[in-house]
Amino acid sequence: MLHRPVHSTTLIAKRSELSSSIIPRSQTRTMASNPARYKLVFFSPLPNLADIKTAVFATGAGTYPNYSECCFTTPGVGQFRPGDSANPTIGAKGQLEEVGEARCEMVCNGREITEKAVAALKKAHPYEEPAYEVYKLEDF
């Protein structure tokens, strides 16, 4: 027997009916009550890391319900070659440079805090073009 595909909105409605009958409404999260969450990842020379984190944390980044200034940091080596029109903080134009750096990642609650955190990062970072990434997080 052939079955016709179920339209996705019908499937979503059935899933929500099922989950609401299993999970108490007080334990479910809604988009309206919780802002979107993002992860900010940036790379910094080790001597500048504390100042950058202070600036980014001041925006409200790295906050969980009962904790603040939360992040995870790992050491590494960054590599770059400044171009002719660059104004490098470290190294010289045209020369390959390797620098001890830290990768720092933290959660940002809401787009506004994320945008403020990125602006603070750019302002506090010593590099002409700081390396950073922003990821939108999903709850499962």
Automatic annotation (TrEMBL):
Highest taxon listed in the record's lineage: Eukaryota
InterPro entries noted in UniProt: DUF34/NIF3_sf, N-reg_PII/ATP_PRibTrfase_C
PANTHER family: NGG1P INTERACTING FACTOR NIF3 (PTHR41774:SF1), PTHR41774
Record protein name field: ATP phosphoribosyltransferase
Organism: Cladosporium halotolerans
